[in-house]
Amino acid sequence: MKLEHIAVWTYQIEALKAFYEKYFEAKAGERYVNEKKKFHSYFLSFDGGARLEIMEMEGIPVSENDIYKQFTGLIHMAFELESQSAVDALTERLHQDGFEVVGQPRITGDGYYESVILDPDGNRLEITFNLN
Prior knowledge:
Layout: E1 6-9, H1 13-24, E2 27-28, E3 32-34, E4 39-45, E5 51-57, E6 76-80, H2 84-96, E7 101-107, E8 112-118, E9 124-130
């Protein structure tokens, strides 16, 4: 069994699509549109088979969670890179391009080298390298 995809709501679907394409090498499928529901989505595919569905529709309430605090439910997505230096480089690139780094690169207690950044919607993304 494998996890097929994770989905997130957004009010800036094109900006989110461009972010994941530019920084995480996502490949976007065709934009899906349901005019009756005013629903739009993209499936973004990543190396290894994981997919992210980004969705936009009028009337979806904005999250009231504080992006700087932990809470129940989905809290982050993680992307594995090929080395510690790749984690450092992507983290610095994102920082230089104006994205917030909420966790500087570090070695975790469970054997990862990782940083944490916020995507354009404030979703937490771990950029990782498995040290094991």
